[in-house]
Amino acid sequence: MHLKVLGLNHRTAPIEVREKFSISKDALKRGLENLDGYDGLSEAVILSTCNRSEIYAVTAEGCEASLYQFLNDLIGGSIDKKFLYEFDGEACAEHLFEVAAGLDSLVLGEGQILSQVKEAYTTAKAQAATSTILNTLFNRAIAAGKKVRTETRIAYNSVSVSSSAVELANKKLGGLVDKSALIFGAGKMAQLTAQHLLSHGLKKIFVANHHLERAQDMAAKIGGQAVAWEDAFTSAAHVDIIITSTGAPHYVVKPWQTQQLMTRREGRGIFFIDIAVPRDVDPEVGKIKGVTLYNIDDLESVVEKNLQARQREAVLARKIIAEDVAAVMERFKYLSFRPLMASLSERAEKIRQREVRKVSSKLPDLSDDERRILDQMTRRIVRKLLRMPMMKLNASAGTDAETFYTQAIAALFTDEVKSFAQN
Predict the structure, then answer these.
(1) Model confidence, pTM
(2) In Å, how far are 25, 119, 184, 296, 413 from 139, measured between CA atoms?
(3) Which residue numbers are catalytic?
(4) ∠ at Cα 187 (181, 193), nearest 5°?
(5) pLDDT of 421 above 50
């Protein structure tokens, strides 16, 4: 059993790379459904967010190529390995625990990633792509993420991507009171952004979405105004800010549309913040006179706010994580022994039952109580005979003697028991 993670994030790849290799929900599910087609991959969970694309997998020895092929098939292309990171064993577990706790996020301590980890695991489990190893790992990581947020103040005064975008607009525009905005998108991120805008005194919010009913639902929640997708740029003629947060796989704001918009605005500048991955706004839009364009990678200056205090809490969080990672790795030491132990116990039990049946047939006058005593006695004998080899096997976990005891017990007991049981 080899535990691995292969992926890229905001630290290893810029947005122009991340957006090319973001994994759609449909591709994610198809990949998990076809996991059996990749040699040596027995379990997998795919975590894909605006800032990371990762595969957590259980692989057989020497099957690293299958994991890379799985990633390439998911993204529909080939990615330069210089953008990727790969962690094995304990380092893989530690990485996941830090991700779940918000320690590996663009915004230190942000809370949305924990729900994204849960969703990734739930999806993989629903596709029957997880078993004992990843079920154990992800359940422990999710629990650790909750513990970190409960026992530390790492999330206190933290900022999210959506609040960072609003802080950036507030800073660049000298305040948002009496300003207006158009938001492309009606998902969770778009709704959070709208709430942050309103908390800064924004006067009016327009919401545009390909599905008008979703825009109407969001507008009703925030007290905004829904606009049809095709009419969005008409509304944009009168707003100060445009924030985009759709799940579109292509640009939804194009240079020619923006050029026409700027003509209608008669020289009034406009502020774009694109927090989508893949990006919603064509980078060429930023070259148009009067347009100021920022994307998600431009938010790092904003997330510095209250960072020092959260970094102190991160030290405490990492202590919690270190203990939990050690505990889960200790448990993993014994998982590899389960098939051998189960085989040994199962074969011994079959022998016991057969011998009890033989004796019972020769002693037909045994009472029910006597038969129960006989059954209990033989169970105790088997348990005591197996106790020492089981203890030796457990004690060798993670030591240099592990291979020796595994091979020795397999040779001395399972083969012998199997042979005896067949006679």
Answers:
(1) 0.71
(2) 22, 12, 35, 30, 35
(3) 50
(4) 40
(5) no
